[in-house]
Specification:
The complex is a heterodimer of chains A (580) and B (337). Chain A contains 20 helices and 19 strands. By secondary structure, chain A is an alpha+beta fold. Chain A is globular. Chain B has one domain: MetI-like (MetI-like fold), CATH 1.10.3720.10. The longest helix of chain B is centred in the middle third of the chain and has 38 residues. Chain B is globular. Classes of the chains: A alpha+beta (580), B mainly alpha (337). Chains A and B meet through β10, α9, α15, β16 and α20 of A and α2, α3, α5, α7 and α11 of B.
Chain lengths: 580, 337
């Protein structure tokens, strides 16, 4: 029996070697053409790998998450827009021009003629009035972007078929109001389509969750949750020659390693969710470009002033001097940049000032001056996700160097924000993104406790900061306004309850055959209508099943069969032996 | 008591099980100090809005009122609406469950194909090299982390060799067949879409192997153990002394009795495969129940959590029932009464 066993093994090994050798010699040798191989996917289809778990709804009046706002910007038009990468000048879109009254409360928008919705209906002032009123009436997640200026639907009126009047509650800086109109909440929907699907007075919101009724370059064909979002070109799109691709597939790929495999192989054209390590791995490849931009998202340490001794400004300053900012940024391998003020880089008025770096002696001295030479104990709360958990450990180590004992508490975002909103945390490690690239957004959140956002959650009732943030929001003179924000940032830098750790940097991998793809510093300004795929000149389409595909499957098939046969034969013999 | 009465009694018991599960899930999910509205709205949302939306979803009502409402709606066949997807939970489950059914069924088939022969071989050839190797193989099945195995398989068969497709249920280039049952294989066959059928089948290979390999281990172990036990019985000695061929002794006399515990394990394995496998589904971007329920938990989407748990409880109860009934057919000695 032992002999037969041996022979069997030898036979299998020989077959494997023979098959392998045959396979190797018949492999088509790489040629010039192959190095410039065409995309394996359709050139008319752009495929993007993204984790779309966060998306709740594709209704502009409801959407507030990264992936849904990304999609909504492809299927709807807004009154005005930014054109990446420029985030300082608001450009006309549906509205070709606008004017405002002297005190800035009455706005007139002139609607562009000849725009059609995807179904062919003309886009007129009625649609604009309906869409904006709908946002206020539904009062959903992101409605505050509009209702902070316009509290009643009646304040939005049609003047004639191509003119809309919006009356604001109170005067605000014109650039501030215009900038907020670039957010996807104010996207213009087709009232006929939406109303046709309304039920129980929801203004079509349930239907709009996974359907579109817009005039943007693409139409939402389908959204299979946890699977893919498919957009097709809008044949009635009003911009000449756009969109350039016929179809966009946003493939839901939650696992970064999968995204890496897919982009390396060319089965997706863009990978949006790679880790810094994976980005480093792809750098230097000719067929893949890495595009990056600072995101309008900062990560900060919030210190609750109500909790002793964080109420003492010197203690907070000591903490700011104890943190190893450069170490944290190094840890994040290119996905973070040094930034310490509350308004992120690329937002107008952002102050580039980074006075803090790790200085243990100074921090200890400040702590002693504050009356805590031996430190104290404090709790740091953070969500248990990358990179927050890692940063928390780093900060714990940094603060322990100056005698502050840190207890790290990890809780899910749902649980943490519940407590944070009730002012129930001591030190929190969290992130904050801008909803629109206007300094008011962060200035009020971090500076004005009256808006019940971050200043309030950290019990920092500072009237100077609050007044300044409020006044800057009302300032008409843009230059003067931006100066006021700089003053506010400087003030918060030293007196505020925050240690801004860094600003995030978005890094995406894009196949080289994709043209015009620009990274988006926000999460709702990406415009894919100009993006296209270019076929390399020497491309050959090749046969659908390449030779090595057939051969390798054949080899595996043969090996598996031989192995199976051998096992069967062995079993037969074994049972025979058992009987005898 | 005959089989019919037995089944009826079990179904009545099942109602209590489901009710118990519902109540327990309700209490646990609503006691956690987390805020689903806050999770959905994100850190930026002003508090007034959080309150408004909370009121809209009825989450500001007293707990007992929410419980009563839920039970009443449940009896009407309404599982509520998911806060996250804004769709009825029953609609969501109908959408996500078929992907899991497909994956679970194929995984189970692979688990049986791998598990039972290994169990038999190592049982028959106890303490030989082949026994040790098969047991090692089975052991590596349970102890290999699924995310690791999944990624390695993807790397080899998708990225390097290119013989199997990447993550997902279908290639991007292939349009899904019209939805009839939600089971891609059946839908594509019914509508004559053979391209989609082959593609969906190929997409199933790796994820179901990963899950099947994992489940095969328990099947192999239990088959081996019970086969060994049966082989030491007197009637096997009798059969052998009659001069029957060993093959007949094993397959006709021993295996039929030895497979009874295996059937239990297979039934329960199928039950647990049907509740979805979060890690495998994440790695293979598989839109199944595991992803749905885990996302629901992360967002504290109460209705969706309860709906998923309810479905899982039902699957388990039914799987158990089927296992018990299968006993009667496999083992003539077992009678319910």
């Amino acid at each position: 029996m032992r002999k037969e066993y041996l022979i069997g093994v030898i036979v299998v090994v020989l077959i494997v070697i023979a098959a392998g050798a045959y396979y190797y010699y018949t492999l088509p040798k790489p040629t010039e053409e192959e190095t410039t191989a065409p995309p394996p996917t359709d050139v008319e289809t752009l495929i993007i790998a993204m984790d779309t778990s966060d998306a709740v709804s594709m209704d502009p009046a409801r959407a507030y998450e990264f992936s849904s706002c990304f999609v909504i910007n492809q299927i709807y038009d807004k009154l005005v827009d930014f054109e990446l990468p420029d985030l300082s000048t608001v450009k006309p879109e549906i509205a070709e021009s606008w004017e405002y009254s002297e005190n800035g409360t009455v706005w007139i928008f002139h609607i562009r003629h000849g725009i059609k919705f995807a179904n062919g209906d003309p886009l007129t002032a009625d649609a604009v009035v309906y869409s904006l009123r709908r946002v206020i009436q539904l009062g959903q997640t992101a409605s505050w972007v509009l209702t902070q200026f316009v509290s009643s639907p009646d304040q939005i009126q049609k003047v004639d078929d191509y003119t809309v009047k919006i009356v604001l509650d109170k005067p605000v800086a014109p650039s501030f109001f215009l900038t907020t109109l670039t957010f996807t909440t104010t996207a213009i929907v087709n009232p006929n389509v939406v109303e046709a699907h309304a039920k129980n007075g929801d203004m079509g919101s349930e239907w709009m969750t996974d359907h579109s009724a817009g005039s943007g370059p693409f139409i939402l064909e389908k959204w299979e949750r946890e699977s893919e979002i498919v957009l097709v070109a809008n044949p009635n799109y009003w911009k000449e020659g756009l969109p350039k691709v016929k179809k966009i597939i946003v493939k839901h790929v939650p696992e970064p390693t999968d995204q890496l495999l897919l982009i390396s192989k060319g089965d997706v054209d863009v990978a949006t969710g790679l880790t810094p390590d994976q980005i480093a791995q792809l750098k230097g490849r000719e067929d893949i470009k890495i595009v990056s931009t600072p995101r309008q998202h900062i990560v900060y340490l919030g210190m609750n002033v109500k909790v002793e001794p964080l109420g003492n400004e010197k203690v907070r300053l000591a903490i700011k001097y104890a943190i190893d900012y450069d170490g944290i940024i190094k840890m994040l391998k290119g996905s973070a940049m040094k930034w310490q003020t509350i308004i992120p880089y690329t937002v107008p008025g952002a102050l580039n000032s980074t006075p803090f770096s790790k200085d243990v002696e100074k921090a200890k001295q400040l702590l002693a001056e504050a009356g805590y030479p031996n430190g104290f104990e404090i709790t740091l709360t953070t969500p248990p996700v990358y990179p927050y958990a890692d940063i928390a450990s780093k900060i714990k180590a940094d603060l322990e160097e100056i005698g502050i004992q840190v207890k790290i508490v990890q809780m899910t975002a749902a649980e943490m924000y519940e407590k944070y909103r009730k002012q129930g945390l001591e030190i929190v490690l969290a992130g904050w993104g801008c909803d629109y690239p206007d300094p008011d957004n962060n200035a009020k959140a971090f500076g004005d406790y009256r808006v019940h956002q971050l200043a309030w959650r950290n019990c920092w009732y500072d009237d100077h900061a609050a007044d300044l943030a409020e006044a800057a929001g009302l300032e008409f003179d843009t230059k003067k306004r931006l100066e006021m924000y700089k003053e506010l940032q400087e003030y918060i830098l030293y007196h505020g309850p925050y240690a801004v750790l860094y600003q995030e940097v978005a890094q995406e991998a894009v196949r080289s055959w994709v043209k015009n793809y620009l990274p988006d510093p926000s999460f709702f300004l990406q415009d894919l209508s100009k993006v296209y795929k270019e076929i390399p000149s020497k491309a050959s389409t090749g046969c659908i099943l390449p030779l090595n595909y057939i051969l390798s499957s054949l080899t595996v098939f043969i090996i598996a069969n031989v192995a199976l046969l051998y096992v069967a034969e062995y079993l037969r013999r074994a049972s025979y032996h058992l009987v005898n | 008591m005959d089989l019919k009465t037995y089944i009826l009694r079990r179904i009545i018991l099942m109602i209590f099980v489901v009710w118990g599960v519902l109540t327990l899930t309700f209490i646990i999910s609503h006691m956690i100090p987390a805020d689903p509205i806050g999770a959905i709205l994100g850190p930026q949302a002003p508090p007034e809005l959080v309150e408004k939306i909370r009121h809209e979803w009825g989450l500001d009502k007293p707990l007992y009122q929410q419980y009563i409402d839920y039970i009443i709606n449940f009896l009407k066949g309404d599982l509520g609406k998911s806060i996250r997807t804004n769709k009825p939970v029953s609609y969501d489950l109908m959408k996500f469950f078929p992907a899991t059914i497909e994956l679970a069924t194929f995984s189970l088939i692979i688990a049986i194909i791998i598990g039972i022969p290994i169990g038999i071989i190592s049982g028959v050839k106890k303490d030989t090299m082949i026994d040790h190797i098969s047991r090692l193989f089975a052991l590596s099945g349970v102890s290999t982390p699924v995310f690791w195995l999944g990624l390695v398989l993807l790397y080899i068969f998708y990225y390097m060799l290119g013989i199997l497709p990447g993550p997902g249920r279908l290639d991007s280039s292939i349009s899904a067949p019209p939805r009839i049952t939600g089971l891609l294989l059946i839908d594509s066959l019914v509508t004559g879409r053979f391209d989609a059928f082959t593609n969906a089948l190929l997409h199933l290979v790796m994820p179901s192997f990963v899950l099947g390999f994992y489940s095969a281990a328990s099947i192999a172990r239990i088959t081996r153990a019970s086969l060994l036990e049966v082989l030491s019985k007197d009637y096997i000695r009798t059969a052998r002394s009659k001069g029957l061929k060993e093959r007949i002794v094993i397959f006709r006399h021993a295996l039929r009795n030895a497979l009874i515990p295996t059937v239990t394990v297979i039934g329960l394995t199928y039950g647990s495969l049907l509740e979805g496998a979060v890690l495998t589904e994440t790695i293979f971007a598989w839109p199944g129940l595991g992803r749905y329920s885990s996302q629901a938990c992360l967002y504290m989407d109460f209705m969706a959590v309860m709906g998923s748990v309810l479905l899982i409880a039902l699957i388990y109860s039914i799987a158990n029932l089927i296992v018990d009934i299968a006993y009667a057919f496999l083992d003539p000695r077992i009678r319910y009464g």
